[in-house]
Structure formats: C-alpha cells, structure tokens
Amino acid sequence: MRIGNASGFYGDRHSAVREMLTGGPLDVLTGDYLAELTMLILGRDRLKDPDRGYAKTFLKQMEECLGEALDRGVRVVANAGGLNPAGLAEQLRELAERLGLDVRVAHVEGDDLGARFRDALTAHAYLGGFGITEALRAGADVVVTGRVTDAALVTGPAAAHFGWGPGDHDRLAGAVVAGHVLECGTQATGGNYAFFGELDPKALLRPGFPLAEVHADGSCVITKHDGTGGVVDVGTVTAQLLYETSGARYAGPDVTARLDTVRLAQAGPDRVRVEGVRGEAPPPTLKVGLTRLGGHRNEVVFVLTGLDVDAKAALVRAQIEDAFSHSKSRPAEVRWELARTDRPDADTEETASALLRLVVRDRDADVVGRALSGAAIELALGSYPGFHVTAPPGKGTPYGVFEAVYVDAASVRQVAVTPDGLRVDVPAASATAGGTRELADVEPPELPEPLAYDRTRRLPLGTVAGARSGDKGGDANVGVWVRTDDAWRWLAHHLTVERFQGLVPESRELKVTRHVFPNLRALNFHVEGILGEGVASQARFDPQAKGLGEWLRARHLDIPEVLL
C-alpha cells in the first residue's frame, strides 16, 4: 500500500495535502501536526476556548481537499485532533454536511491523562496505531487522533490493510521505521540535508513530500510523487532515520523497533528500499508528555560595536547586575550570552558588532517586564560607547516546560470511536499475545578495523560526515554518518564521547551516550539536559538543537587525507 505524508508539523506547507492527493496514486494520506511545543500551544488555546485544542489548519485543508480525497479513494489519517479529537471529528462531520459529502469520520481517544496530572496544562500518553487500525476496519474515510506516536500514523493503516496483529513484531517494526522516515515531511526528500550543496538547487526550491510503498512483510520503499522537487536517496533517508532517536531500541506502544537492523539500498532514482528491520515486544509502560506554564521570560540584546567588546560586555553586565541588586524584585533567573559575531576591520557596522543577550525568567510577569526594561533602558546614556539594543524589552511573555513521565500501559484505555459511534476498546500490548518486554541496552556492536593512514589535514568534520540533530524534551541527539566504508572505519574509532564533548564544550558537564549503527555507518550521540526544560522554555540559543549537528560538522579535526 502507498502511504503519503502531507504535514511534518503544525504550520507546514498548507498546499501539501492537495499536492499529495493530485500528484500520484495513494491509498492513505497522513499528517503529523503535533510536537512537544504544539501541545503547549494547543493547551493555551484550550484555556481560551474549551471547544478548541485541535489543529485548525487541518480543518481548512479538509475544506479544500476532502472531496478530492473521496473521489480518489484516499483515506486520511492525522493526529490533528490534538487535545480534542472528538471535537475535531464533529467539526469534520459538520464540514462534510455543508459540502454535501458523504464522509465517514472516526476518531481515537484515551490519551488525555489530565485527571491523573492535575498540575499540568496538558498530560497526554503516546498511544500506538491499533486505535487507527480499528477505525479504518470500521470503514472510516477520515481518522483523527490525539497524541499518538508519529509512526502510529503509518503502523495503524498498514496493520488494517495487511491484517497484522500485536504479535507481528517484525512487520510492525518495519512500518515504524517507515513512519519515522515520513513523519517530518520533506526532511526525507532533501530538506535540512547536510549535503544539500551536492543536490540540484532547483530541486530544493520546493521539495516534494515523501511516501512509503509498504509491503506485507513490513519492508518498504521510500519515494515521492514523480515530477515533484527534492531528492530521495540513502543519505536523505539515513539523516531522517537518525533524527530524534537514541539507541538501537526505538521503543513504541506497539513494538520496539531495532534500528541497528535497518538496511538501506538505493532502488532507483528517488527510491530507497528499507528492509531487514527486526522488532521486539514493546515495553510495559507508555510515555506521557506533560506541559506546564513555567513562568514568564523577557530578553534584551545589547549591540557591542568595534573595539573592546569583552570590556564593553563586562561593563553593561556589571551595571545590570548592580541595578538588580538595588531592585526589590530581582528576576529568579538571569542568563547572559555573548555571541562574537564581530570581525576586525569590518567594512559594515553590522559585521563589526557582537551581540550580548540577556534573558531573565520569573514566575511574576511584572518582575521580568518592568524590572528588566527599567534596568536596561536607563543605561542608554551612561554605559559603554555606542550603546544600543536590537529592540527595547517589552512585557514578559509566558513560557512553558515539558516533562516526560511513564505510566503502566495497561492503565491507559485507548478507544476507537467508529463512524457509527461505536466505542471499541483497544487492548494494551500486555493483554495481547504479543506481550511486553522490559527495555534494556543492546550489547555494543563490534567496530570495524581501524583505518590505516599516515597523513591528515585539519578540516571541518563536515568535509566527510553528515549530521542531523533534534530535541526530545530537555535532551538532544546528534546523528553523524558517513558514506563510505573507509570513512566509517575512521569515524567509528575517532569520534568518541570524549572527542564529541571536546568539540561541543557545553556538553562536557552533561551525560553523553554514544550509540553505534554499523548498517547505517552512523553514530548517534544522546546529550542529556542540554535543552533545560524543553523547547518551550527557550533555555538555549538554539532551543530545539536543530543546528547542533551543523555546529559539530563545522568543528575542525585531523582528517585522514585518504578520505579526501
């Protein structure tokens, strides 16, 4: 069956739904609208209007394209229900009635655990795909869910189509890998790709969205519609496979996929075969994402131009700290970061300037508002030469925090509400023949023979290696891969945890774990706590660690000349 993707996040390309429906044959069109930050956004929406809490753009896309999907026999599966899948399902029925369409709409619920975590803004378990399976088996044309795993949007339809059950671990694991590749849309077709400079620039202007040709044994071919932009090759698929993962065991509610068994092969232009994936029983617990309003934050960026940048930064920092010390309400958290973007003898003022960023946080909005604006702006005529800021600080803005906890999977009741209104309980894995299995680290694989070489050159790591990085709560991962066996023989031995921490200094005091994937010629570094309390807390310059891999690629190493 052919399963396509038309959304990698809430705010992705609006026209992608129509492009995927009209661009070529499909059986199912999926859309991923949820992320940790999105759940916080939807939670704040729901505070304003209890009937909201879903991705409104999906409803608009269906208004434009639902008839097209029905005419082409394409079923639509999306997690756009967010915090209110039942409400979105009802809105879709009303929409279909207005459009004069006979549409069978189902939804999946049970992920909302707010009653257990009453101090959280949102509390949602990551459900698996069998609720979607039940809805499709009941004849649904459109299925909307709340918080399911991203891969569930593919495993659910595949299980419905091929008749898989909870014990079909290898098949389900193959579909999980397909779903993980598809979930971020055009990241699988050349978007955000480390070696983008090697691709046709015209192809990158508007990458097409990916699709997977899934087979009954769980293997698949990742591809895209003919004539669309972008590229699908082993490199683009490898990059997405490493994105936001950790070790060899990729755990989910339905199956634990063994990423160390994945084999990729180019199967033609814009076609990558994915096979060999092994699966194991899922763990007995479910991940639950909690979001909370953490308080309020504010920031000001001082521009330091020309000479004596460090001394100017020291002066204004001392002045602000002195002002806070005389204030009745010093912010609870004060963070400074100096970005040396200046160049010597620069031919523009902008390139002669560095940026000193001050971020403050406190539970009280007034403390981060008036306290900061007063302390910063009162210095305008009495600080370092050339004093100015990029923008005056305004009122404090609320920020959120994310936390992952785990609950007994058997305690979460997943329910598929069919188009006819029947409520079908979906049993937890522990209650099925497939059972569960406690997670444990795999034995590290044997490394290849070290590369023999005599001469090296001091060059960026990215000369020979690609990387992709991302966030999971307060942690980040950085996947690094190479494209030849000789480069792998060097990378596997050279890029150790210690060397990684040397190249990424802010990780030196953090726990960093290295995972080895010989089939992919890849290493995956999991960095705990580098993002503080998650993306919404904005604790770091790059709060989602999207550029962390590119920073690593820009660091210089002694690279063997035989690889160049």
Quick description:
With 564 residues, this protein is an alpha+beta fold.
How would you characterize the overall build of this protein?
The chain is α+β, with helices and mostly antiparallel strands and 564 residues long. 27% of the residues lie in helices and 26% in strands. The protein has 14 helices and 26 strands. It has helices at residues 16-22, 36-48, 56-72, 85-99, 130-137, 152-162, 169-182, 201-204, 234-242, 309-325, 365-377, 485-494, 497-503, 548-554, and strands at residues 2-5, 28-31, 75-78, 105-109, 122-125, 142-145, 210-214, 220-224, 249-251, 256-258, 263-266, 272-275, 278-280, 285-305, 333-339, 353-362, 388-389, 397-408, 414-417, 423-426, 456-460, 466-472, 475-481, 512-517, 522-527, 556-560. The strands form 5 sheets. The protein has an 11-stranded mixed β-sheet, with helices on both faces. Strands 5, 14, 15, 16, 17 and 18 form a 6-stranded antiparallel β-sheet that branches. Strand 7 (210-214) and strand 8 (220-224) form a beta hairpin. Helix 1 runs parallel beside helix 3 (56-72). The longest helix has 17 residues, at 56-72. It is globular. The chain starts with a strand and ends with a strand.
